[in-house]
Amino acid sequence: MASTLTFIGIVWAFFSLSAALVACCGFYLPFWINGKLLAETDTSFGSFIRCGFPYMGPSGNLEITSQCGRYSSFWTIPSGWWRATTILTGTGTTLSLLVGLTACCCWCIGDIVSSSTVKFAGALQLFSGLLIVVGVALYPLGWGNKEVQDACDDGVMQSGPYQLGPCKISWSMYLLAGGVFLLFVCFGLSFKACRVKKGTFRI
Fold first, then answer.
1. Best label site of 73, 93, 152, 178, fewest CB within 10 Å?
2. Which among 141, 47, 49, 125 is positioned nearest to 92, based on CA atoms?
3. 37-42 — which CB contacts under 8 Å span 24+ positions?
4. Residue 37: strand pairing partners
5. pLDDT in tens, 79-134
6. pLDDT of 70 strictly over 80
7. In this structure, what are the phi and psi dihedrals at residue 192, rounded to the nearest 5 degrees?
């Protein structure tokens, strides 16, 4: 059975899955910002997970691990802004993944979608991209929390809202930006992705 997707529709389906995977990797990997603890141990943060953090060792002394771990609960995330980022960005990436998987089904299985259905999927991609943008925009408001300040204070500069001090933006942020860009491209492609209009039939 032939697919109802046009050539642009096939590109849309491929970009849809690619956008979802890129955005999900950016969200789940804890490399949004990088800094150093005690000026020597590398540490990195996501919105709900971090790598390189202090903990109480078996001897009762404070030690620093290079491993990664999620915060023990949603409410132990050190900033309310980061909790909002986790909800918004997590919802956006999950929605984009659902649309991406559905787009692949449209590619592989013929006559299951109409033009209006694909346009609706494109609108969901636009909405998921906007959720990610808002979530990422809120994230820097939490840079003033103590954990980030401990990693981003060199005695001269210190972190604060939209100020990272000596810390750096890391590659997970660039993955999120790339995912959002592809989602917006997919929204545009969705208008020319399907050759079958609603209410018509193929024989």
1. 73
2. 125
3. 37/64, 37/150, 37/151, 38/64, 39/154, 41/66, 42/66
4. 41
5. 999 999 999 999 999 999 999 998 888 777 656 677 888 899 999 999 999 999 99
6. yes
7. -125, 20
Amino acid found at 182: L
Six-digit token pair at 166? Answer: 């000596």
Nearest Cα to 176, choosing from 1, 25, 11?
Answer: 25
Whether the Cβ atoms of residue 121 and residue 103 lie closer than 8 Å to each other: yes
**Dihedral of the CA atoms 13, 108, 90, 122 (nearest 10)?**
40
Looking up tokens 């960005």 gives 89
Parallel, antiparallel or unpaired: strands 41-45 and 49-56: antiparallel
User: Model-level pTM?
Assistant: 0.88
Distance in angstroms (rounded) separating the CA atoms of residues 155 and 93: 37
Q: How far is CA 152 from the centre of its chain?
A: 23
**DSSP letters along 38-77, please?**
TTTEEEEE-SSEEEEEEEE-TTS-EEEEEEEEE-SSGGGS
Is 80 exceeded by the pLDDT of residue 198?
no
